[in-house]
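Appendix B. Raw example, untouched.
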Amino acid sequence: MKLEQNVSLKAFNTFGLEAKAAQFIAFTTVNELLAALKMMESDQELMILGGGSNILLTKDFDGIVLKNELKGIELINEDRNHVWIKAMAGENWHQFVLHCIENDWAGVENLSLIPGTIGAAPMQNIGAYGVEIKDVFDSLEAVEITSGKYQEFTAEECEFGYRESVFKTSLKGQYIITSVVFKLDKTPKFNTTYGAIQTTLDEMKVKELSIKAISDAVIKIRQSKLPDPAEIGNSGSFFKNPTIDNIDYEGLKAEFPSIPGYKLLEQKVKIPAAWLIEQAGWKGKTFGEIGVHKNHPLVLVNYGNGKGEDIKSLAFEIRASVAAKFGIEIIPEVNII
């Protein structure tokens, strides 16, 4: 473990934005993490960095950055129908999905190619194509920052919601996730009804459905829509899809007949934020070194030398225009720092 000073974070965020950390430590074991926490001053600001795929850096960071590089994947239990897989928080999420597919562990194939790490997955309750982390989650272990104590969290204690958990609400900034246990199926329950999965499988001429085929289809869909951060700086979907009351949705549908909506429980409807942003005229717009991606209006991009503060300003302009046109507030999914 090495304490470094004045470290560039450009290589550690998928937007590719230049910002410096006053102090930086990469930890590879829990003991190194505990040692790093003991080194901190009581009033020092802390940033935990995983894959850097869900942050927008708008300035230099005056505190200490702890880069999570905890690695390891192991089968810890199994019965006739399920396996319990423990993955360390610094593992790459997509590589974990591929590992599960290779071992015929089903349940995460619809979550292929989502950027980020294992530790960020439950924090965000990541989801795609009809599956969320809460559907395959068993438990996680985390270290309390102030005390250094280990604690296990069950699914109920994580309080999963749409792209959120207790670690983004009441316990925000209080814990560092070190490992996650997933409960996966030995016999797959194929989920092909969401989005263009079935259409893509048909185009791929898949004769025998498998978790690998679903993963391949999801990868193909995502690659056709979303830019590769290695080529164009971005953090994937920048905004959450808003949820409104059914009565408000019916009112909007009278004014905007083509507005899509997905009915949820408790008389709620989820509206695709991408549709709202496109209808507000932002899709494909460029502003110097930044802009809104031409294929997916939910994705804000850095074309090379953009500034985080400019992307933040663009995001808030988009929010304001959507609110003015539809009366709907869209909330960033990305953490703005």
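End of appendix B.
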